[in-house]
Each structure stands twice: as C-alpha cells, then as structure tokens.
What we know:
The chain is mainly alpha-helical. It contains four helices and two strands; from the N terminus they run βαβααα. It has a two-stranded parallel sheet with strand order 1-2.
Amino acid sequence: xxxxxxxxxxxxxxxxxxxxxxxxxxxxxxxxxxxxxxxxxxxxxxxxxxxxxxxxxxxxxxxxxxxxxxxxxxx
Length: 75
C-alpha cells in the first residue's frame, strides 16, 4: 500500500516545501497530496515540476531547487 503525505502546515518558502517533500520521501512516502503549499506558491507550476522531479526522478533538494529556479526563469 503506497504511503502518501498530506500538505501539512503552510511552508514559508518553496524551498521549505521541497525539503518537506524530500524528507517524507526519505522516510518512505511514495507520493504527496498537497494543497496550499503548491497552489499558494508564487510559481505553482514551477514548484509542481520540481516536486515531480523529487518524486519520480529521485533528485536531491538542490537539484529540485535548481529545476524550480530554471522553470521560473523560463516561464
């Protein structure tokens, strides 16, 4: 049975959201169910892309942050 994490408390920054997701994945979660930490981000599509990379490509937080920043620049 896959374990998913809920969004939890509002994160201060997109990086905090990525760190929370990464920590959950490292603890055995298989995915996320997020709301405000994605949709209330200044760049929800870019953050969602970075989160996808964490989950499906098993990238590091730094790699996900780089992807986030690149997505924002290219938006």
